[in-house]
Amino acid sequence: MADEIITGRNTPPSHRAIQGPDAADILENKLTQMQSLLSCCYGDWSEWFEGIGERHRDHIMWLAADLTDDIIGLTQDVLKRLIALEQPKA
């Protein structure tokens, strides 16, 4: 197990997260993870990415795809909540 989280500490939960992290907090964490993951694949780190071999590159892209699926679902949850808040109450 790693002693240190590479992407930094998790962002603190919002004041709304009394019963645990909500979709917006989890979404923010997933986006931070995705940003760190993708930063290893381009720019100054592109040589590292090319040098790790096809198998590991494939696994990294698989991880990015899974994170993207999570982000899509969380974004839809957050948008549904925002739309529900904007609806006039009868």
Classify the secondary structure makeup into a structural class: mainly alpha
Total number of strands: 0
Shape: elongated
Write down the overall mean pLDDT. Answer: 84
How widely separated are the two ends? 52 Å
Helix content: 55-70%
The parts where pLDDT drops under 50 for at least 5 residues are none
The count of helical stretches stands at: 3
Largest sheet composition: none
Describe this structure in words.
The chain has 90 residues and is mainly α. It has helices at residues 23-39, 46-51, 54-86. The protein has one domain (23-86). The longest helix is centred in the C-terminal third of the chain and has 33 residues, at 54-86. The protein is elongated and about 60 Å long. The N and C termini lie far apart (52 Å).
Keywords:
mainly alpha; 90 residues; 3 helices
Q: How would you concisely characterize the structure shown here?
A:
With 90 residues, the protein is mostly helical. The protein is 62% helix and 0% strand.
Describe the secondary structure blueprint for this structure.
Blueprint: H1 23-39, H2 46-51, H3 54-86
Helix pairs in contact: 1-3
